[in-house]
Amino acid sequence: MKRRLISIPFFLLRTTTAGAALVTGLLQTYVFAHILSPQRFSIFILVAAFGYSLWLIDFGIVKILFVRLRARFLAGYQSDAVAGHATAVVLFYFALVTTGALLCFVFMAAHAGASLRDAAEFGLFFWFVALNLVWFALRNIAIAVDEYVLFEALETVRRAGYFVGLAAVLFGLPLIVMLIALNALWAVVVAACVRRMIARGALRPHIGGFVADFVSFFRANKAQLVRSGAYAASEIYTANYPYLIVPMLFGLGAPPIILDTTFKVFRGGATIFGAVCDILVPRQTSALAERDGPTLVRATLTAAALCSIPAAIACLILYFGADKLFHLLLGNAATMPPATTPILIVLLIANLTQMVCHSVLVHNGYFREVARIGMAVVTAMTGVGAYAVLAHIDIVQFLEAYVAVYTCGAVAAVVLMIRGPIRLAHEIAAVPGAAPRKLSDGKAAPATR
User: Fold this and answer.
1) Torsion angles phi and psi, residue 337, rounded to 5
2) Burial 394-408 (b: 16+ CB within 10 A, else e)
3) Which end of the chain is more exposed for a tag (fewer CB within 10 A), N or C?
4) What is the largest CA-CA distance in the chain?
5) Contact status, residue 139 vs residue 279, Cβ threshold 8 Å
6) Left, alpha or beta for 360 (phi > 0: left; psi -120 to 50: alpha)?
7) Could you tell me the pTM of the whole model?
8) For residue 447, which phi and psi values (nearest 5 degrees)?
9) What is the distance between the alpha carbons of residues 183 and 131, in angstroms, rounded to a whole number?
10) Cα(78)–Cα(100) distance, integer angstroms
């Protein structure tokens, strides 16, 4: 029986949660801009930036886990070793996030201008943001064993709770109450997901020996970790270093808010594009494992076409109504320069291109190749930052330079995808009797580099 390119329930749930991510991101900006002073709002932005910076610790670990788990799932084989590795990674990330939240609380409490309540709010907000690292790991583990529908159902619950919480704060609920409630909801959905992954054999039911499992994972995947780590670090650096440059150049207040609003739209688009790409990942990985080149191309083009729909809508909204949209979101906290509109449109198109290509490359193990592009982009971005500091350019000029470099990286990813997995799938498929590469335990695996 011919397999579908897309799981319809997964498609509906994933697009819903991706849209909710964009809406809640913009709603957060709206609520914070209207209930907080510009100074305090900008501090929350910096706390979130540090929370997201924990993703630097990942170094591509989660994607390596995905490749290993997916290979065994497609081969109909369960490995206790890989399940132990996945458990160790999830536990390590949770411990890291919790430690970061405590340190944030302590730092803020020690600051002369912050009360204990303020410090608690910042610490809880840090935890709320940084738990996305644990959730990211669980998402990939769930997709690897075809439990994506359950995961997206839990994500729907979490996003709905976030929306309700933000709306309640806008109507008078204390911010600290909302943060406590949302972190409690985090605990519920994470526990539910972990329970199902244990039942599917993707995680272990006990945590004893997780340190040894963590060390074992690094020993077993040294080469891949170097390559995927370079790629992941470049992605996190590219997405977060402007949050350090802009306050240093322009101070707190309006400039960081302008940057964050721009990146809210950027990350919102990335979330939607990533959601669409996730829908096609199961079929793309199985197509390459089966050396079915036409199906891999068809699935990738489908991902690009589906991503183009929300991208086109977003670009039209920005082109015709950016000034009204940003005025509604920010009120008197800051004014978005008109020149940010074309910057955002180009950034969204470049991000769509990159997300589609990187999804194919990373989920099929092409870590070395994407790492090379990533390092080139990091070098160029660092040059942009240095130039911004030395030449004292304004924030619009900084964003223009950022987008130019980012677009070049996206074009390079297209070339790499065509010359990499797509060409490989067609070449092997054309060879009679060709077989997939074998893992060290003799089981078939997707192509990895």
Assistant:
1) -60, 140
2) ebeebbbbbbebbbe
3) N
4) 72
5) no
6) alpha
7) 0.67
8) -65, 130
9) 9
10) 34
Q: Alpha-carbon distance 325 to 316, whole Å?
A: 12
Which is nearest to 70 in space by CA: 61, 59, 80, 82? 82
In the structure encoding, which two tokens stand for residue 289, read together?
Answer: 């494992």
Query: Is 440 exposed, middle or buried, given 0-12, 13-18 or 19+ CB atoms closer than 10 A?
Result: exposed
* Tokens at 12, concatenated: 């509906």
CA distance linking residue 135 with residue 151, whole number of Å? 10
Q: Which residue has the tokens 């579908």?
A: 4
In the numeric block, which tokens belong to residue 332?
């008197």
What one-letter code names the amino acid at 400? E
Report whether 137 contacts 93 (CB < 8 A). Answer: yes
Two tokens at 261? 């609003």
Contact assessment for residue 224 and residue 64, using Cβ atoms and an 8 Å cutoff: yes
Q: Which two tokens stand for residue 440?
A: 């060290």
Write the pLDDT tens digit of every residue in 269-315: 888 888 788 888 888 888 887 788 888 899 899 999 999 998 999 89
Q: What average pLDDT does range 119-128 have in this prediction?
A: 90
**Residues 18, 156: contact at Cβ < 8 Å?**
no
CB of 311 closer than 8 Å to CB of 269: yes
Taking the CA of residue 434 as centre, how many other CA atoms within 13 Å lie in the half-sphere pointing to its CB? 16
Q: Are 39 and 182 in contact (CB under 8 A)?
A: no
Report which of 259, 249, 244 is spatially closest to residue 333, judged by C-alpha positions.
259
Task: Say how far apart CA 346 and CA 359 lie, in whole Å.
Answer: 20
Contacts of 239 (CB under 8 A, 6+ apart): 52, 263, 267
| Residue count (the chain) | 449
For helices 222-240 and 210-220, give the axis angle rounded to 10 degrees: 100
> For 214-247, what is each residue's pLDDT tens digit?
888 888 777 777 777 777 778 778 877 787 777 7
The tokens of 66 are what? Answer: 């995905």
Contact 261, 329 (CB under 8 A): yes
Query: Six-digit token pair at 142?
Result: 């769930």
